[in-house]
Amino acid sequence: MSVVGLIGSGHIGGTVARLAVAAGYEVVVSNSRGPETLTDLVDELGSGASAGTADAAAEAGDLVVVTIPLKAYRSVPVAPLAGKVVIDTNNYYPQRDGRFPELDEGTATSSELLQRHLPESRVVKAFNNIHFRHLSSLARPAGAADRSALPIAGDDAEAKAVVTAFLDRIGYDAVDAGALAESWRFQPDTPAYGTVYSADPANWQQEAPGDADKLRAALAQAG
User: Fold this and answer.
1) pTM score over 0.90
2) What is the pLDDT of residues 37-51, one digit of tens each?
3) Residue 24 DSSP class
4) CATH number of the domain at 3-221, out of 3.40.50.300, 3.40.225.10, 3.30.390.10, 3.40.50.720?
Protein backbone atom coordinates (compact mmCIF):
# COMPACT_ATOMS: atom_id res chain seq x y z
CA MET A 1 0.00 0.00 0.00
CA SER A 2 1.53 3.30 -1.07
CA VAL A 3 -1.26 5.79 -1.82
CA VAL A 4 -3.76 7.18 0.67
CA GLY A 5 -6.83 8.90 -0.72
CA LEU A 6 -8.65 11.43 1.42
CA ILE A 7 -12.27 12.36 0.86
CA GLY A 8 -12.36 15.49 2.97
CA SER A 9 -9.36 17.59 3.92
CA GLY A 10 -10.42 19.51 7.01
CA HIS A 11 -8.76 19.33 10.44
CA ILE A 12 -8.66 15.53 10.72
CA GLY A 13 -8.18 14.89 7.00
CA GLY A 14 -5.36 17.40 6.70
CA THR A 15 -3.66 15.99 9.80
CA VAL A 16 -3.89 12.41 8.53
CA ALA A 17 -2.47 13.59 5.19
CA ARG A 18 0.51 15.21 6.95
CA LEU A 19 1.20 12.11 9.05
CA ALA A 20 0.89 9.87 5.99
CA VAL A 21 3.33 11.94 3.91
CA ALA A 22 5.78 12.03 6.82
CA ALA A 23 5.56 8.23 6.95
CA GLY A 24 6.39 7.90 3.27
CA TYR A 25 2.96 7.54 1.68
CA GLU A 26 1.71 9.43 -1.33
CA VAL A 27 -1.61 11.17 -0.76
CA VAL A 28 -4.42 12.42 -2.97
CA VAL A 29 -6.55 14.98 -1.13
CA SER A 30 -10.02 16.18 -2.02
CA ASN A 31 -12.83 18.27 -0.61
CA SER A 32 -16.32 19.43 -1.57
CA ARG A 33 -15.09 22.76 -2.97
CA GLY A 34 -12.77 21.46 -5.67
CA PRO A 35 -9.05 20.66 -5.99
CA GLU A 36 -8.14 24.26 -6.83
CA THR A 37 -8.95 25.17 -3.19
CA LEU A 38 -6.33 22.73 -1.88
CA THR A 39 -3.26 24.37 -3.39
CA ASP A 40 -1.88 25.55 -0.04
CA LEU A 41 -2.24 22.11 1.55
CA VAL A 42 -0.63 20.35 -1.42
CA ASP A 43 2.24 22.85 -1.44
CA GLU A 44 2.77 22.24 2.27
CA LEU A 45 2.70 18.45 1.85
CA GLY A 46 5.21 18.50 -0.97
CA SER A 47 5.90 16.29 -3.96
CA GLY A 48 4.15 13.27 -2.48
CA ALA A 49 0.78 14.99 -2.57
CA SER A 50 -1.76 15.96 -5.19
CA ALA A 51 -5.31 17.25 -5.19
CA GLY A 52 -8.29 15.87 -7.06
CA THR A 53 -11.99 15.29 -6.89
CA ALA A 54 -13.52 12.86 -4.41
CA ASP A 55 -13.82 10.33 -7.23
CA ALA A 56 -10.14 10.78 -8.09
CA ALA A 57 -9.06 10.34 -4.46
CA ALA A 58 -11.25 7.24 -4.18
CA GLU A 59 -9.86 5.80 -7.38
CA ALA A 60 -6.21 6.51 -6.57
CA GLY A 61 -6.13 5.40 -2.96
CA ASP A 62 -4.98 1.94 -1.95
CA LEU A 63 -6.49 2.98 1.39
CA VAL A 64 -9.14 5.72 1.50
CA VAL A 65 -10.08 7.95 4.43
CA VAL A 66 -13.59 9.40 4.50
CA THR A 67 -13.51 12.46 6.71
CA ILE A 68 -16.55 14.59 5.91
CA PRO A 69 -19.58 15.59 8.00
CA LEU A 70 -21.91 12.66 8.57
CA LYS A 71 -24.79 14.50 6.90
CA ALA A 72 -22.87 14.24 3.60
CA TYR A 73 -22.02 10.54 3.75
CA ARG A 74 -24.29 9.69 0.82
CA SER A 75 -22.06 11.87 -1.40
CA VAL A 76 -19.16 9.44 -1.02
CA PRO A 77 -18.53 7.77 -4.42
CA VAL A 78 -19.47 4.10 -4.34
CA ALA A 79 -18.04 2.44 -7.45
CA PRO A 80 -14.38 3.58 -7.08
CA LEU A 81 -14.30 2.25 -3.50
CA ALA A 82 -15.51 -1.27 -4.31
CA GLY A 83 -13.20 -3.81 -2.71
CA LYS A 84 -11.17 -1.17 -0.86
CA VAL A 85 -10.53 -0.57 2.83
CA VAL A 86 -12.19 2.69 3.87
CA ILE A 87 -11.43 4.47 7.14
CA ASP A 88 -14.43 6.36 8.51
CA THR A 89 -13.65 9.27 10.85
CA ASN A 90 -17.23 10.54 11.20
CA ASN A 91 -19.08 11.44 14.36
CA TYR A 92 -22.78 12.14 14.74
CA TYR A 93 -23.48 15.71 15.83
CA PRO A 94 -27.25 16.34 15.50
CA GLN A 95 -26.79 20.10 15.71
CA ARG A 96 -24.68 19.92 12.54
CA ASP A 97 -25.96 16.83 10.78
CA GLY A 98 -29.67 16.91 11.52
CA ARG A 99 -31.45 13.94 13.04
CA PHE A 100 -30.89 10.32 12.04
CA PRO A 101 -33.59 8.22 13.75
CA GLU A 102 -31.56 4.99 13.64
CA LEU A 103 -28.68 6.73 15.41
CA ASP A 104 -30.95 8.36 17.98
CA GLU A 105 -32.59 4.98 18.66
CA GLY A 106 -29.28 3.14 18.82
CA THR A 107 -30.25 0.66 16.11
CA ALA A 108 -27.20 1.56 14.02
CA THR A 109 -23.91 3.41 14.32
CA SER A 110 -22.74 6.14 11.97
CA SER A 111 -20.10 3.82 10.51
CA GLU A 112 -22.74 1.18 9.83
CA LEU A 113 -24.59 3.79 7.77
CA LEU A 114 -21.46 4.38 5.70
CA GLN A 115 -20.93 0.63 5.33
CA ARG A 116 -24.49 0.26 4.01
CA HIS A 117 -23.77 3.05 1.52
CA LEU A 118 -20.56 1.25 0.46
CA PRO A 119 -21.69 -2.39 0.37
CA GLU A 120 -18.63 -3.61 -1.54
CA SER A 121 -16.09 -1.74 0.59
CA ARG A 122 -14.66 -2.71 3.97
CA VAL A 123 -15.25 0.13 6.43
CA VAL A 124 -13.14 0.58 9.56
CA LYS A 125 -13.87 3.27 12.13
CA ALA A 126 -10.81 5.26 13.28
CA PHE A 127 -9.52 8.78 14.04
CA ASN A 128 -12.90 10.01 15.32
CA ASN A 129 -12.13 10.08 19.05
CA ILE A 130 -9.05 12.32 19.08
CA HIS A 131 -8.67 16.07 18.65
CA PHE A 132 -6.77 16.90 15.48
CA ARG A 133 -4.09 18.81 17.40
CA HIS A 134 -3.47 15.78 19.62
CA LEU A 135 -3.46 13.49 16.58
CA SER A 136 -0.68 15.61 15.13
CA SER A 137 1.45 15.96 18.25
CA LEU A 138 1.10 12.56 19.93
CA ALA A 139 2.45 10.43 17.05
CA ARG A 140 5.47 8.41 18.22
CA PRO A 141 7.76 5.73 16.74
CA ALA A 142 6.95 2.09 17.39
CA GLY A 143 8.16 1.01 20.80
CA ALA A 144 8.19 4.51 22.31
CA ALA A 145 7.29 4.47 25.98
CA ASP A 146 4.83 7.33 25.52
CA ARG A 147 3.12 6.00 22.40
CA SER A 148 -0.65 6.51 22.21
CA ALA A 149 -3.26 4.11 20.89
CA LEU A 150 -6.31 4.73 18.74
CA PRO A 151 -9.43 2.56 18.78
CA ILE A 152 -10.64 0.87 15.62
CA ALA A 153 -13.84 -1.03 14.83
CA GLY A 154 -14.86 -3.00 11.76
CA ASP A 155 -16.58 -6.11 10.49
CA ASP A 156 -13.65 -7.42 8.42
CA ALA A 157 -10.56 -8.76 10.20
CA GLU A 158 -8.26 -8.28 7.21
CA ALA A 159 -9.38 -4.66 6.83
CA LYS A 160 -8.68 -4.01 10.49
CA ALA A 161 -5.20 -5.50 10.05
CA VAL A 162 -4.58 -3.09 7.15
CA VAL A 163 -5.68 -0.13 9.26
CA THR A 164 -3.62 -1.32 12.24
CA ALA A 165 -0.52 -1.41 10.03
CA PHE A 166 -1.29 2.08 8.70
CA LEU A 167 -1.70 3.46 12.22
CA ASP A 168 1.56 1.85 13.29
CA ARG A 169 3.42 3.45 10.40
CA ILE A 170 2.07 6.94 11.13
CA GLY A 171 2.82 6.71 14.85
CA TYR A 172 0.03 4.95 16.75
CA ASP A 173 -0.88 1.63 18.28
CA ALA A 174 -4.37 0.28 17.62
CA VAL A 175 -6.93 -1.19 20.02
CA ASP A 176 -9.61 -3.34 18.42
CA ALA A 177 -12.98 -2.32 19.86
CA GLY A 178 -14.91 -4.94 17.90
CA ALA A 179 -17.42 -4.77 15.07
CA LEU A 180 -18.85 -1.58 13.56
CA ALA A 181 -21.85 -2.08 15.84
CA GLU A 182 -19.49 -1.52 18.79
CA SER A 183 -18.01 1.72 17.45
CA TRP A 184 -20.38 3.71 19.67
CA ARG A 185 -17.93 2.88 22.48
CA PHE A 186 -15.60 5.66 21.27
CA GLN A 187 -18.08 8.13 19.83
CA PRO A 188 -18.99 11.49 21.47
CA ASP A 189 -19.95 11.48 25.15
CA THR A 190 -18.04 8.31 25.98
CA PRO A 191 -14.93 7.98 28.22
CA ALA A 192 -12.78 7.08 25.19
CA TYR A 193 -13.72 10.22 23.27
CA GLY A 194 -11.23 13.09 23.43
CA THR A 195 -10.26 13.24 27.06
CA VAL A 196 -8.40 9.92 27.01
CA TYR A 197 -5.60 12.00 25.38
CA SER A 198 -5.83 14.85 27.89
CA ALA A 199 -4.05 15.38 31.19
CA ASP A 200 -7.13 17.17 32.51
CA PRO A 201 -10.57 15.89 31.41
CA ALA A 202 -11.92 19.42 31.82
CA ASN A 203 -9.30 20.91 29.49
CA TRP A 204 -8.62 19.14 26.20
CA GLN A 205 -5.70 21.47 25.49
CA GLN A 206 -3.54 19.77 28.12
CA GLU A 207 -2.57 16.74 26.10
CA ALA A 208 -1.29 13.50 27.55
CA PRO A 209 -0.54 10.18 25.83
CA GLY A 210 -3.35 7.66 25.80
CA ASP A 211 -1.75 4.24 25.80
CA ALA A 212 -3.49 0.97 24.97
CA ASP A 213 -4.28 0.07 28.59
CA LYS A 214 -5.77 3.50 29.27
CA LEU A 215 -7.83 3.27 26.11
CA ARG A 216 -9.08 -0.25 26.82
CA ALA A 217 -10.23 0.86 30.26
CA ALA A 218 -12.11 3.80 28.75
CA LEU A 219 -13.77 1.56 26.15
CA ALA A 220 -14.87 -0.84 28.90
CA GLN A 221 -16.50 2.03 30.82
CA ALA A 222 -18.75 2.95 27.89
CA GLY A 223 -22.45 2.39 28.28
Assistant:
1) yes
2) 999 999 999 999 999
3) T
4) 3.40.50.720
